[in-house]
Amino acid sequence: MSESIEQTQTHSSRYVDASLVRTKFADTIEEIIEAIGEITLVVKREGLVELMTFLRDEPSLKFNYLSDIGGVDLGEFAEPRFAVAYQLYSLEHNHRLRVKVFLSEDDANLPTMWNVWKASNWLEREIYDMFGVNFEGHPDQRRILMPADYEGHPLRKDFPMKGY
Amino acid sequence: MQARELVVPATSTISPLSMLRKSDPLTDTRMTVSMGPQHPSTHGVLRLELVLDGETVVKAIPDIGYLHTGMEKTMEKEKWQQVVTITCRMDYLNSMGNDLGYCLAVEKLMGVEVPERAKVVRVLLTELNRIASHLVWFGTHAMDIGAMTAFFYAFTHREKILDLFECATGARFHQSYFVIGGARWDVPDNFIPLCQEFLDGFPSLLAEAKKLVTGNKIFQTRTKGVGYISKEDALDWALSGPTIRGSGVNWDIRKTEPYSGYETYDFDVPVYDGGDVWSRYLVRMDEFHESWKICCQALERLRTIGGSVKSDHPKLKLPERDLMKQHIDVMIHHFLLASEGFTVPVGEVYQSIESARGEIAYYIVSDGSERPYRVRVRTPSYVNLAALPAMVEGSLIADVVAVIGSIDIVLGDVDR
Q1: Across residues B133-155, what is the average pLDDT?
Q2: Is the complex ipTM higher than 0.90?
Q3: Where along chain B do its domains lie?
Q4: Class assignment of domain B73-317+345-376?
Q5: pTM
Q6: Which of B47, B64, B350 to mutate to test the interface with A (most CBs of A within 10 A)?
Q7: What Cα–Cα distance (Å) separates residue B52 from each residue in B20, B29, B65?
Q8: In this model, does residue B57 exceed pLDDT 50?
């Protein structure tokens, strides 16, 4: 996978050079995927906050804008079951990066990004609401779109379309 | 499928109100007021729990979800081409932009390039929609603050844009006009003179509107220095669109990551660094003019650039009638496209565009079937609204209304 990053640099300047983080966070980063001009870092949950803080503060990367956090349920019987994708953007360098974490159903916990980007507050609440992923250290983890006493997580694949 | 037992953690049942209530009601001077969801100036069904000390807002807790209809879930069961009928219903004031974002994302995943004329039609209608959306904001924002007349001016002219949409697409509101691979059909012949007529008359409306509201002393006093958010906080909260440009951040996706040929149009990005309601007002008022400039250029191109508005990609274009009568395989292809739809390669894509409210982005995961596996929509109103407490806490309760108007939320966009 490591060769693909250098290739990306030649045909697209919008996507970032990930070699900087590859050596520094060798234990956290599992894989670097490049597809249709977009770069995805597949990472482990351990060391995620340190990696994100580095991505935000490193002058040559400067991902100062958390564009989105999206959750994906890979299916009832899939292992790992959930994927959470952080879409980062740098206004200074005008480049994007996707950081993806896979979680198993039994241990669907992630550290909160509240101390890195404040925008993560509602985005994480939505994932908690829709998928039941728990964000450790979140300042106000409540349901956001569904009522507070609602049971179930609607965007899980085993949640029926008509509701319970 | 059998319902599975799901455990909701106990924290979700704690009401924020009970957390804030002090033990002794005699010494506690604070009062909690529920603003909305039927309050006329919350632009839909937004509810705010305001903790007040006198007239000062100590804490504001937005409560959303009243309009949640599970659109992301519904999209998973629709075919790729049918999803545009849902996307335009999210942010119903900027439906063209929503459709465009989705179509661009799927086209990127499929590697399809749309024809030049389709790009021009897309830019023209999206910019007209931006003007229409900003007109609604202009009318309601001024009305919230107390200037009633501006509303009638704005809606008279918005009506003309909706007439243009009806002429081009057959629908005034939920057009679903853009499809994957271009536009549903070409604009009719009488669209161009009608559009020209509107664009000719628009600058005079703008001058009138500016005279009516911009120079108004009361409006200025109500908005200057109100709802302040600094440049650093705006970035931290991931604000986008006119809301972040009112805090001095020069960022417009049409310029930084151009799509649909925006890089070939001549327009400026208005930026004001006041960070208050007044600055955000000025940004949008200038955007009227910039969108009008783009519309004029696009209309000129529409006159000269011919060709089809739909891509020739075999998955996206239905076969010709005559060929169907001659070849059985063409007939089968037509039947399968119409009944089963088409498949999209396995992969994931993140495509963002500049809507009237900010960055609307689609994160689409495809498993190679004829339906999207997951469509995640990053809507600008949702992310912008999250920063509302940061803007209103410490200010007066009357200013809350002005701030809500200045971030221009659409609750359909927030709740989806």
Answers
A1: 88
A2: no
A3: 73-317+345-376
A4: mainly alpha
A5: 0.88
A6: B350
A7: 11, 9, 23
A8: yes
